[in-house]
UniProtKB/TrEMBL annotation:
The protein's name in its UniProt record: 3-keto-5-aminohexanoate cleavage protein
Cofactor: Zn(2+)
Keyword Zinc assigned: yes
Gene3D superfamilies: Aldolase class I
Signal peptide, first to last residue: none
InterPro entries recorded: Aldolase_TIM, BKACE
Coiled-coil annotated residue ranges, if any: none
Amino acid sequence: MSGKVIITCAVTGSIHTPTMSPHLPVTPDEITEAAVGAAEAGAAIVHLHARDPETGKPSPDPRLFMQFLPRIRQQSDAVMNISTGGGLKMSLDERLEAAHAARPELCSLNMGSMNIGLFHITQKYPEWQHDWEKDYLEATRAGIVSNTFEQIERVIREVGNAYGTRFEFECYDIGHLYTLAHFLERGLVKPPLFVQTIFGLLGGLGPDPEDLMHMKRTADRLFGDAYRWSILAAGRHQMNLCTIGAIMGGNVRVGLEDSLYLSKGEMAPTNAAQVAKIRRILEELSLEIASPDEARDMLDLKGGAEVAF
């Protein structure tokens, strides 16, 4: 896993809501500005969701994606990674709409069904900007994020095989690595696997460094040199675990989807500020940052000319 470090920036996501930060990108203009700024700061990949520009609620509408994808491409060479995880309560058909419309170089793909608990966040906010926010988060007490074997295979066939799109395989637990190994053994996915290990969300792996070590040991055993490792940590654990992982040879993901803060008690004013911080840390450790084209080579992507936007 030697070589340059790929920085991914997840600019808005579907977990945080407008009440939580005035800096969360919501409109197509804001998402475009956030993605381009992150790329200028050093992100080779920008991971993208869409939101209703009036309410900030996560949306699967491909028309919203098309209001920022071409503009980001015009202003940046960054790899655009479109979520197939979507948002809570979205059907798989809805979650795939943007990927079908855009035929991107890269899509995220969750490697298992799981509980993702966000309900505890509601205790921090006595008032909400929009009516949907509290109910959206509280619904995670009884909801489950569905990614069955059948659903995963459908995404691989409909998006990967159909368009030459490759995947950021999002692994929230050890079992997700074994599920990915199953699809590799069947020949449905091919190396190099881009494996995003995720820490610190309620319902998934914890944020202890030993959790990170365990995921890496398991991935090494299952995939050998057939994968590229990346680290995503939620909230205050973002910079710490990303730094540990990068020292161990991994790539990193930051952004306001994963954490709203730049440091303790200081909200991140932009996605670019988080990218600039992790880049500064890594360069101080004598690690080199991958450009978008270097990331394309490392992940064997089809190239920006082959997308549909």
